[in-house]
Amino acid sequence: MKYLFLSLLLWLIASAPAGAQRIAKPSARLNPPLKQELDSMYVQDQIFREALIDPAKTKQRDSLAQRYQLPANNVQGGLMSRMIRTDSSNLQRVRAIIKRFGYPGKSLVGTPTNEAAFYVIQHSSRIPEYLPLIKQAAEQGELPFRLYAMMLDRQLMYAGQPQVYGTQGRSFPNPNPTEKQQYFIWPIADPAHVNERRRQAGFDQTVEENAARLNIPYQVLTIEEVEKMPGYKK
């Protein structure tokens, strides 16, 4: 759960939109070398996050700490540092891939490899730049539409606007260090119909079930209510 908060601290910086993007053209054959590279990149994207947030990943956490010789008194900080460095290098490579091929979707690298570049972008500050491309890929069937929904929600949250599909949770630093941070589902536009939108987007869980999966008590909030929370900053 710490990742929900930490990720937002690390990647709230919005970037200026770039020029027109494109989707990789359908090919009679997949690109095996690119598929292998993106599969490896996805593993790199996930391994530190899993070690940080999953209590069951103790052995993985210890293995990474030993591999990178992380200080025993600050393994979490060391893992975070490694994750940030990996995210940066992955993003540079994904940008180069998109510039050369367009978005590497199902036609080029198959499934589920077509999701790898999405997660690299989702964990970066480049969402405003690539959101139109992700939408295009989803509309053309090169990427699951639910992933575009997740990225759209994250961008709306970063912009301080209500999300559409209820995929994003957040917390603010608590001014009182003796109290735990309170996590919440970011405000949703038209919350009464969010589960209908989620079904249409391809989600198999309701917003309530998704909140429970994130271990966040679900409650309907407005932006105005969030702005009054302790620790809130624009």
Sum up the structure in keywords.
single chain; 234 residues; mainly alpha; two-stranded antiparallel sheet; 11 helices; 54% helix; globular; disordered N terminus
Give a quick precis of the structure.
This protein has 234 residues and is an all-alpha fold. It is 54% helix and 2% strand.
Strand count: 2
Please state roughly what percent of the residues sit in beta strands, choosing from under 5%, 5-15%, 15-25%, 25-35%, 35-45% or over 45%: under 5%
Helical content class:
40-55%
Report the major sheet. Answer: 2 strands, antiparallel
The residue ranges in which pLDDT falls below 50 over 5 or more consecutive positions are: 1-20
Kindly name the structural category: mainly alpha
Average the pLDDT over all residues and give the rounded result: 87
Number of separate helices:
11
**CA-atom Rg in angstroms:** 18 Å
| Outline type | globular
Distance between the termini: 22 Å
Give, in order, the helices and strands.
HHHHHHHHEEHHH
Placed side by side, the strands forming the largest sheet appear as: 1-2
Question: Can you offer a commentary on this structure?
Answer:
This protein has helices spanning 2-10, 32-53, 58-67, 75-101, 106-109, 116-122, 127-139, 145-158, 194-201, 207-213, 223-227; strands spanning 169-170, 184-185. It is mainly α and 234 residues long. It has a two-stranded antiparallel sheet. Helix 2 crosses helix 3 (58-67), helix 2 (32-53) crosses helix 6 and helix 7 (127-139) packs antiparallel against helix 8. The longest helix is centred in the middle third of the chain and has 27 residues, at 75-101. The chain is globular and about 55 Å long. The two termini are 22 Å apart.
